[in-house]
Design goal:
The chain is an alpha/beta fold and about 160 residues long. It is about 25% helix and about 30% strand. The chain has a five-stranded mixed β-sheet. A three-stranded antiparallel β-sheet has the order 1-7-6, with helices on both faces. The chain is globular and about 40 Å long. The chain starts with 6 loop residues before the first helix and ends with a strand.
Length: about 160
């Protein structure tokens, strides 16, 4: 992995968080980055989480939900203490996080963003999420993900 680190992997290393990186060759024809990761890595898709950037009352907010579900925007708004949420403009999401779509990690954002992680993550010993680029997943304990992102944990998946 030399020379292929990301802000997410740098943060995990700096904070001495136990984690495992899982790299695979991303197929640009695949319709879902998260589903592809589950299939290629041979893991239960319920343990793979996607990172979605939304606007809650005009403020960028990150929702982390299982790839098997959808982000419930009303639930995200409520968990973030707001009234209304909509998906963020992709360019704004990439600019704020420092990552490209399909590789947005919940960790190591360029700008400080509020993060809400779906409560289902707590049911797993470890979860998988993007490590900051397409074809690179990080496996870590949900409690570590919550702590590193200063996240709110709430039922936000529909």
């Amino acid at each position: 992995m030399a020379g292929k680190g990301t802000p997410a992997t740098a943060l995990l290393t700096k904070q001495k968080i136990a984690h495992t990186l899982h790299a695979y060759d991303h197929d640009p024809r695949h319709e879902s980055y998260g589903t592809e990761a589950a299939e290629v890595l041979g893991i239960d898709a319920a343990r793979v989480y996607k990172t979605l950037v939304a606007e809650v009352d005009g403020k960028l907010t990150v929702g982390v939900v299982p790839v098997t579900g959808q982000l419930d925007l009303k639930a995200l708004a409520a968990a973030a203490g707001g009234k209304k949420a909509k998906m963020a403009d992709p360019v704004a999401a990439q600019r704020a996080t420092g990552y490209v779509l399909g590789g947005i990690s919940p960790l190591g954002h360029r700008s400080r963003l509020a993060v809400v992680i779906d409560a289902s993550a707590e049911a797993h010993t470890t979860v998988y999420c993007s490590a900051g680029r397409r074809g690179l997943e990080v496996e870590l304990a949900p409690a570590d993900l919550v702590r590193l992102t200063n996240a709110v944990v709430a039922p936000i998946a529909g």
